[in-house]
Write a structure and sequence with these properties.
Layout: H1 2-19, H2 22-25, H3 28-67, H4 71-99, E1 110-116, H5 120-140, E2 144-152, E3 158-166, H6 170-174, E4 179-185, E5 196-206, E6 220-225, E7 241-246, E8 251-255, H7 261-285, H8 289-293, E9 304-309, E10 314-317, E11 322-324, H9 327-331, H10 336-355
Parallel strand pairs: 4-9
Antiparallel strand pairs: 1-3, 1-5, 2-3, 4-5, 6-7, 7-8, 9-10, 10-11
Helix pairs in contact: 1-3, 3-4
Length: about 350
């Protein structure tokens, strides 16, 4: 471990030196890249000298036990060695935690997408419940929420909505929400009291920075059309809605919320960049099966991750087998207990993988 830590200490010193050079200072993106890496190497480097000194003290105590004959001194040396070994174990456990690879996206804002699945209008109403849940969660954590695109029903349901959620460590908190969310409840229109099951799909994408995704204009087909509101009513009388197709991947993004075609195009490009960023990351990660094993669930959007059961007032996260009988509070944005448990589960899996 000492050699590994020494390498990280040396890399930290290299990063600090590079961040003070003029060419890096003039390049905000390069500075940000180095700063992100240094944020991980710094805490380890700060503890390296203490750890090295501790190992030296342990070696000294062991040598004393082998050479000393005075029983009183030997007893003191044994006590010192026991305390030093306890401290060593504590420091090494701390290092193990610090050495776990950090998710480079944790500090990013997110593009959050909600789509109604099977279940018709009831699924759309559940999509509206999820929208409120995430909005309330964002308020609790002082995040800001901006609607990039939406398709809502006359009853207040959500067929599809795309949000930009901004704030500190947003992705770290919301990344576990990707997947299929299932609801079990009796719809208001159900006279016999029969429980219906419907679903909505949530996708959480790290917001891509412009320099990270190279989108050639030649790879885009941009169509404009007239926006339409509920029931086919016109939102405005100009061709302000925008549909962008990324031809190499077939990725399609539409936006019609703004009255300005320019604003709709800008929002659509933001969503497109984030979808492509996630796609490229997944392609890279697919080459590393060990990385796949470290994820909480598969991250597959077809995977059912959570069930919201209204008759029993419970919410169950199937990835970790956690059930809470606090459904109203959970839907009001009080999600931290489940998110903390998911983060802990991910940490334990990464620790287990690091020990293999």
């Amino acid at each position: 471990m000492l050699e590994k830590l020494k390498g990280i200490r040396d890399r930290n010193e290299e990063l600090l030196a590079r961040m003070s050079e003029a060419d890096v200072i003039r390049d905000p993106q390069l500075m940000k890249k180095y700063a992100r890496e240094q944020a991980q190497t710094g805490p380890i480097a700060d503890r390296f000298d203490d750890y090295s000194k501790l190992l030296g003290d342990i070696a000294g105590s062991r040598e004393l036990l082998e050479t000393e004959t005075d029983e009183e001194i030997l007893e003191m040396a044994r006590e010192d060695l026991e305390q030093l070994e306890e401290r060593r174990q504590s420091m090494e456990e701390n290092f193990r935690m610090l050495l776990i690879p950090k998710d480079e996206n944790d500090e990013r804002n997110v593009i959050l997408e909600i789509r109604a699945g099977t279940g018709g209008e009831e699924a759309a109403l559940f999509g509206g419940d999820l929208l409120r849940m995430y909005t309330r969660f964002a308020e609790r954590h002082n995040f800001t929420v901006e609607t990039l695109s939406s398709n809502v029903t006359e009853l207040g349901g959500v067929k599809e909505i795309v949000l930009l959620v901004s704030g500190r460590d947003v992705y770290a908190r919301l990344k576990y929400e990707s997947g299929v969310h299932r609801v079990q409840r009796v719809p208001d229109t159900e006279s016999s009291g029969r429980i219906h099951t419907s679903a909505a799909t949530v996708a959480v994408l790290p917001e891509a920075e412009e320099v990270e995704v190279d989108i050639s204009p030649n790879d885009l087909r941009i169509d404009v059309y007239r926006s339409s509101g509920h029931g086919g009513q016109s939102v405005n009388t100009t061709d302000s809605a925008v549909r962008i197709t990324h031809l190499p991947t077939g990725t399609v993004v539409s936006c019609q919320d703004e009255k300005s075609q320019i604003k709709n195009k800008a929002k659509a490009m933001k969503v497109l960049a984030s979808r492509l960023y996630e796609r490229y990351q997944q392609e890279a990660a697919s080459e590393l099966s060990a990385n796949r094993r470290q994820q909480v669930g598969s991250g597959d959007r077809s995977e059912r991750i959570r069930t919201y059961n209204f008759p029993q007032g419970r919410v169950t996260d199937h990835r970790i087998g956690l059930t809470l009988y606090q459904l109203p509070a959970f839907l009001d944005g009080d999600m931290d207990e489940v998110i903390t448990a998911l983060a802990q589960d991910e940490m334990e899996k990464k620790l287990a993988a690091a020990d293999e």
